[in-house]
Write a structure and sequence with these properties.
The complex is a heterodimer of chains A (579) and B (85). Chain A folds into three domains: 114 residues, Phosphohistidine domain (Glucose Oxidase, domain 1, 3-Layer(bba) Sandwich); 116 residues, PtsI, HPr-binding domain (Enzyme I, Chain A, domain 2, Orthogonal Bundle), CATH 1.10.274.10; 274 residues, TIM Barrel. Chain A is built from 23 helices and 16 strands. Chain A has an eight-stranded mixed beta sheet. In chain A, strands 9-10-11-12-13-14-15-16 form an eight-stranded parallel beta barrel, surrounded by six helices. Chain B has a single domain, classed as 2-Layer Sandwich (Histidine-containing Protein, Chain: A). Helices cover 38% and strands 20% of the residues of chain B. Chain B has three helices and four strands, in the order βαββαβα. In chain B, helix 1 packs antiparallel against helix 3. Chain B is globular. The chains are: A alpha/beta (579), B alpha+beta (85).
């Protein structure tokens, strides 16, 4: 079985699966109490108080960790538990429970229904608040368990016994729909090798605590609780991959990759580039301030692609200037003195924004008014964004660069550069996503300060293959020699105009392809943060000359598979590193 | 009714630790204490659930109100908590 979620705590971990599925059943809807409302109310409130006391007691244990090394997670865990204790005795909740019991509802159901009101409010708010729903459910289930005598689901107290006599105990891979902080807060690395949850996001407790514990974690992993208990599970907390049916070879490979990542992380900040010292800034792709932590942890040397539209998906109106400014400044603050490349709102096609509607019905939105084409139509929205960027940059030392999406001609590049300059933005660039832009890269580059190749869209438009269609995956393969030709043309055109040319598509995340891109003349690489350590390790083990040879070998191939094989043959250290 | 207007400066807004500290302090007050975003209905400052649902972000301003003996001291303490990083 091979599952994917979001890797939120890096590293590789494996062990027997421990599945937490048991949950406290919902009390029947029509359950009524015997008639003594006052006694029933007291019973309900006593249960809530007991839960609050237990949570406080656990928090106090965390405040006095026997192991000083666990101080970090202890403090964060204790905060969560104390907030939960406050939820159990919340005055609004108490009033709700009492009112329901007065109507004749039995205590367990009254507790369930009173929580439901707040649960809906938090879940409906989305984001951080929605992730607090797990905390609330945990408090509710604990109170109901006290009232009904139902046992609470528990986490393992010790690791699995050794696989063979005389072996070492095996920490579990803990799998759950969602983990409650009250459970996870007392876990240690001796018991847990990795976390996998079906729910949760990057700010869920599982993610926070796993990072604090230094244990790999994958959240939002659909289908995880269907894993057979006891089956060996391999978790990659960087890529988000979760696998069962793993061989000894897979485990060795994961360990080697993990080691390469650790070594690369230890060198984070050192801008090494290739083995012979050719500098190649390795940057992170981000969708908002929430991704900065991962970028920094993985040693990003700046931001190569800030996808600003992700801040505003689902909004009816253009976001306020201050809100934009705040979101942009967060990235600039995180990378003082470093490049931060922000892409102007890239709406249309697969990312519609309600406040940037295409002018009419587009039968083929990928070829319609999107990217810069829409921004030219909605000049005020672009101008507001550029103004917010300029204000955010004014007080920061980070080197802000702003680029336009979906640019096809030199005239469009000039228009965008002028819009940026009018707002006092010093560095303007354009993305190369349309084959026309790659073919005439020198003339586009002459109008701006830099180019950045978006390989995903460039492949879609070069091969006339919709990137949303899985059946056309072959044509979307970034190893397609024709795509590599376009990258070479774009990089060469930029060089002719003495401009840098980066790549910010997923192609840069493949350690072998990253070397090939550098060999093709690309000057910086930007990728998902989790991919940075492996790419840095691969690049640092090869010379620029080897990268060029790998690029030539790939260009000489006739298809993606042979291009990959030919390039890898020129990059001998990749196999040694397990990359 | 005495009130304090304060801008929340903590990164996490009035969530997580600041929210818990705020609620614990409010719960000790003998009188009712209310908190509101400008122009919106106030919620019970002793309720962690209502305060979380209020969703106060960094740099947002809130108004805290209470009435009765010692209300000013309570309000000062709460404004101090809400305005701390």
């Amino acid at each position: 079985m091979r599952l994917t979620g979001a890797g939120v705590s890096p590293g590789a971990g494996h062990g027997p699966a421990y599945i937490l599925t048991a949950s406290v059943p919902e009390p029947p809807e029509d359950s009524a109490h015997a008639g003594d409302a006052d006694a029933e109310k007291e019973r309900a409130l006593a249960a809530l108080r007991q839960v609050a006391d237990e949570l406080e007691a656990r928090a106090a244990r965390l405040d006095r960790p026997e192991d000083p090394a666990s101080g970090g997670p202890g403090r964060e865990g204790a905060d969560i538990l104390r907030a939960q204790a406050l939820m159990a005795t919340d005055p609004g909740l108490t009033v709700g429970v009492e009112a329901l019991v007065d109507e004749g509802v039995a205590a367990p159901r009254a507790v369930f229904s009173a929580f439901a009101k707040y649960r809906d409010a938090l879940a409906g708010a989305g984001g951080y608040l929605a992730e607090r729903v797990a905390d609330l459910d945990d408090v509710r289930d604990r109170a109901i368990a006290v009232l009904t005598g139902h046992p609470l689901p528990g986490v393992p107290a010790e690791p699995a016994p050794p696989a063979e006599p005389g072996g070492a105990p095996r920490p579990y891979v803990l799998v759950a729909r969602d983990l409650a902080p009250a459970d996870t807060a007392l876990l240690s690395r001796d018991v847990v090798a990795a976390f996998v949850t079906e729910g949760g996001g990057p700010t869920s407790h599982t993610a926070i605590l796993a990072r604090a514990m230094g244990v790999p974690a994958v959240v939002g992993c659909a289908g995880a609780t269907a894993i057979t208990p006891g089956a060996t599970v391999l978790v990659d907390g960087s890529s988000g991959e979760v696998r069962t049916d793993v061989s000894a070879e897979d485990l060795a490979r994961a360990a080697s990759l993990d080691q390469a990542r650790r070594a690369a992380r230890a060198r984070a900040g050192e801008s090494r580039g290739t083995r012979d010292g050719h500098p190649v800034p390795l940057l992170a792709n981000i969708g908002g301030p929430q991704d900065l932590d991962a970028a920094l942890r993985n040693g990003a040397e700046g931001v190569g692609l800030y996808r600003t539209e992700f801040l505003f998906l689902g909004r009816r109106h253009a976001p306020a200037a201050e809100e934009q400014e705040r979101a942009y400044r967060a990235a600039l603050v995180a990378f003082p003195g470093r490049p931060v490349v922000v892409r102007a709102l890239d709406a249309g096609a697969d990312k519609p924004l309600a406040f940037l509607p295409p002018p009419g019905d587009e039968p083929n939105p990928a070829l319609g008014e999107r990217g810069l084409r829409l921004l030219r139509r909605f000049g005020d929205v672009l101008d507001a964004q550029l103004g917010a960027l300029a204000r955010a940059a004014a007080s920061e030392t980070a080197e802000l660069q702003v680029m336009a999406p979906m640019v096809a001609t030199a005239e469009e590049a000039r228009w965008f550069a002028q819009a940026c300059r009018a707002r006092g933005l010093r560095r303007a660039g354009v993305m190369v996503e349309v084959p026309a832009a790659a073919l005439r890269a020198a003339s586009l580059a002459a109008e701006v300060d830099f180019l950045s190749i978006g390989t995903n869209d460039l492949a879609q438009y070069a091969f006339a293959a919709d990137r949303e269609l899985g059946t056309l995956g072959d044509l979307q393969d970034p190893w397609q020699p024709a795509l590599l030709d376009l990258v070479r043309l774009a990089a060469a055109g930029a060089a002719e105009a003495a401009r840098p040319c980066g790549v910010c598509g997923e192609a840069a995340a493949d350690p072998a392809l990253a070397c090939v891109l550098v060999g093709l003349g690309v000057t910086s690489l930007s990728m998902a943060a989790a991919a940075l350590p492996a790419v840095r390790a691969g690049l640092g083990e090869h010379t620029l000359e080897q990268c060029r040879e790998a690029a030539e070998a790939a260009l000489a191939a006739t298809g993606p598979a042979s291009a990959r094989a030919a390039a890898r043959a020129c990059l001998p250290a990749l196999d040694r590193l397990g990359l | 009714m005495p009130e304090r207007k304060v801008t929340v400066v903590a990164d996490v807004g009035l969530h997580a630790r600041p929210a818990a500290t705020f609620v614990r302090a409010a719960a000790k007050a003998p009188m009712d204490v209310w908190i509101a975003k400008p122009g919106r209905d106030p919620v019970n400052a002793k309720s962690i659930l209502q305060i979380l649902a209020l969703d106060v972000q960094q740099d947002e301003t809130v108004v805290i109100k209470a009435e009765g003996d010692g209300a000013d001291a309570v309000l000062d303490e709460l404004a101090n908590i809400a305005g701390s990083p």
